[in-house]
UniProtKB/TrEMBL annotation:
Superkingdom, natural source: Eukaryota
Subcellular location: Golgi apparatus membrane
Gene Ontology cellular-component terms listed: Golgi membrane
Keyword Cell division attached: no
Molecular function terms, GO-annotated: mannan synthase activity
Upper lineage: Eukaryota, Viridiplantae, Streptophyta, Embryophyta, Tracheophyta
Organism of derivation: Cocos nucifera
Protein keywords: Glycosyltransferase, Golgi apparatus, Membrane, Transferase, Transmembrane, Transmembrane helix
PANTHER family: GLUCOMANNAN 4-BETA-MANNOSYLTRANSFERASE 3-RELATED (PTHR32044:SF21), GLUCOMANNAN 4-BETA-MANNOSYLTRANSFERASE 9 (PTHR32044)
Protein name: Putative glucomannan 4-beta-mannosyltransferase 9
TM region(s), chain numbering: 58-88, 108-128, 208-232
Length: 234
């Protein structure tokens, strides 16, 4: 169990956290897939209902579903992990600084206001969220199309079960290597893709995108080899 303390009111709140990064990854997948799947199922019902006004229908669909649960994940991944690195090979394409620098910086600073104690992790958090956006984009498309694991509801192990999980892993070490289980191939593939694009921009580019592509590639690689998460001592 994790304990969250709010100093001003001296209140202690207990909360369960995913015990491993893979558990967190599965949790984020479910949280992204669920709303998009729900939107696919009830969009027509929202449109046909006569109990609420047209303006409220548009607000519900646009604000709660389309922007926050669908567009945000897709735009983040495609723009920062696909479009910008791919533009390295097309010198004619120029992306404005407000899209590459100003908007991400502003959003990052606004997020940091609420968690000043984690300010030292701010830069890594930005690149880590871009990594997770790839996983969330896949989940959103799965929910919208109703394919794959859309109807599966697997609750990940929480922090309170981490010690038991560690004991179970120790007993199963002889059955196989744990290194192969930690490697995430999609993230590893994106790390290689971004690293190549960063090298191309460093050698031939003029927009200095490699300053953000290299750290992004490193973050994808760290996630791919399982170097993100926590260790709970037994």
């Amino acid at each position: 169990m994790a304990t969250v303390r709010k100093e001003k009111e001296d209140t202690t709140v207990k909360s369960e956290l995913p015990s491993t990064f893979k558990a967190y990854r599965n949790q984020q997948y479910r949280w992204a897939c669920g709303p998009s799947n729900l939107f696919r199922k009830i969009a027509e019902e929202i449109r046909r209902t006569a109990k609420i006004s047209l303006w409220k229908k548009i607000y519900l669909a646009y604000s709660f579903f389309v922007v926050q649960r669908i567009i945000a994940h897709i735009v983040t991944f495609t723009f920062y992990c696909v479009v910008i690195p791919a533009s390295v090979l097309v010198p004619e394409v120029k992306i404005s600084k407000w899209g590459v620098v100003y908007i991400p910086t502003t959003m990052t600073l606004l997020h940091s206001v609420g968690t000043p104690s984690s300010f030292h992790l701010l830069l890594f958090w930005v690149f880590f969220e871009n990594v997770m956006s790839m996983h969330r984009t896949k989940a959103v498309l799965t929910g919208l199309l109703g394919v794959g694991e859309v109807n599966e509801w697997v609750v990940p192990e929480k922090l309170g079960n981490a010690v038991k999980a560690n004991k179970g892993e120790e007993s199963s070490k002889n059955s196989g290597s744990t290194i192969s289980k930690r490697i995430l191939l999609p993230e590893l593939g994106m790390a290689v893709y971004l690293f190549i694009r960063a090298c191309c921009d460093f050698a031939y580019g003029k927009n200095y995108y490699f300053f953000c592509i290299y750290p992004q590639a490193m973050t994808f690689f760290m996630v791919a080899i399982g170097y993100v998460g926590i260790f709970v001592s037994s």
